[in-house]
Design goal:
The structure is a single chain. The protein contains 13 helices and three strands; from the N terminus they run H-H-H-H-H-H-H-E-E-E-H-H-H-H-H-H. It has helices at residues 2-17, 23-42, 54-65, 77-96, 123-129, 138-153, 157-161, 191-208, 228-241, 250-263, 268-275, 280-283, 285-301, and strands spanning 168-169, 174-178, 184-188. A three-stranded antiparallel β-sheet has the order 1-2-3. The longest helix has 20 residues, at 23-42. The protein is elongated, with a radius of gyration of 23 Å.
Length: 305
């Protein structure tokens, strides 16, 4: 097992230093590799990466997904595809470092996955959600500033959590965002969101902050950085107050931001830049949403639809 653990640690270090992936992505790779290497050592009694063959990988996939699944646990095609992707990256790394001669992933195919359209809020629903906060309350004003920022800029929840006051360029009207893989990008924010962020900093954050708040923009009632769960709770509470009972999460605001820009006529590559997508195919999911929207409008208003 020492050989397997050693190469896993070297691979994780490679992802962190050479590929500059986010810690969340690296953690996902680590978990998928742990499952695979645990199976290889415990079930197959293989303790060297050089002895792992394509049959070994296939047996592992059957173990977690197919007829040999003794765990009686169902893994979705998407989950299996993610594990295969992690293994491909791992063995490609081993091959590039001349640690293995043959790559066992060359004959492995990923299961076909259906690409689900992300949940979005309509513009009317967004207006409802952004109108229920009590801006005279310090936490209500914080919620208003946070939700306006999420919708105005399409930030990932991790980006909103780590946003600092020094990242806001009020005169210029944009945010400096540190995204996945520590890639910095510039994102417009808009006058309405800036107005409420300004009010929040002046009237709410000034009360919430403490010595350990540092430059963090959005704070909880203790003066600490908001957590993922904290933002999720804020979103669900405000959506419920707006009468929206669907399962809304922080990414819903990001999806809505992109979809509404596309519906307004924005170029897909501009949206890609604002979202921080490295691959245009990731952004193109919103063109499918837009087509569905157009079909819905056509059916609703065309006299012969």
């Amino acid at each position: 097992m020492q050989d397997l653990e050693l190469h896993k640690k070297l691979f994780i270090n490679f992802l962190r230093t050479e590929k500059s992936l986010s810690e969340n992505t690296i953690a996902s790779y680590g978990l998928d590799l742990d499952k695979f290497l645990g199976y290889v050592s415990e079930v197959k009694q293989i303790f060297s990466v050089g002895k792992i063959k394509d049959e070994t990988v296939n047996d592992f996939l059957n173990f977690i997904y197919g007829s040999d699944n003794k765990l009686n646990k169902k893994f979705s095609p998407k989950s299996v595809s993610r594990k295969i992707s992690a293994l491909r990256t791992f063995f490609k790394y081993l091959e590039s470092e001349n640690i293995i001669d043959l790559n066992p992933m060359e004959s492995i195919e990923s299961p076909k996955t259906s690409r689900l359209l992300p949940e979005v809020l309509s513009q009317e629903e967004i207006e409802k959600v952004l109108s229920v906060q009590d801006v005279n309350d310090k936490l209500g004003l914080r919620d208003k500033a946070l939700l306006e920022t999420l919708y105005a800029s399409g930030l990932r929840v991790s980006e909103a959590i780590n946003l600092c006051t020094g990242d806001i360029f009020f005169e210029e009207g944009y945010l400096r965002v540190l995204g996945k893989g520590s890639k910095e990008r510039i994102v417009p924010i808009g006058n309405t969101a800036l107005e409420y962020v300004t009010l929040y900093i002046r009237n709410s954050r000034s009360i919430l902050k403490n010595k350990k708040s540092f430059d963090v923009l959005f704070l909880n009632f203790r003066g600490n950085k908001l957590s993922r769960m904290g933002i999720l709770d804020i979103i669900r509470k405000n959506c419920l107050s707006a009468g929206i009972k669907r399962n809304i999460h922080p990414h819903t605001f990001r999806h809505s931001f992109a979809t509404h820009l596309l519906q307004g006529g924005a170029d897909i590559r501009i949206i890609q830049e604002m979202l921080g997508h490295s691959d245009i195919s990731t952004t193109q999911i919103y063109t499918h949403i837009d087509k569905d929207y157009l079909i819905e409008i056509h059916k609703s208003f065309h006299p012969r639809a």
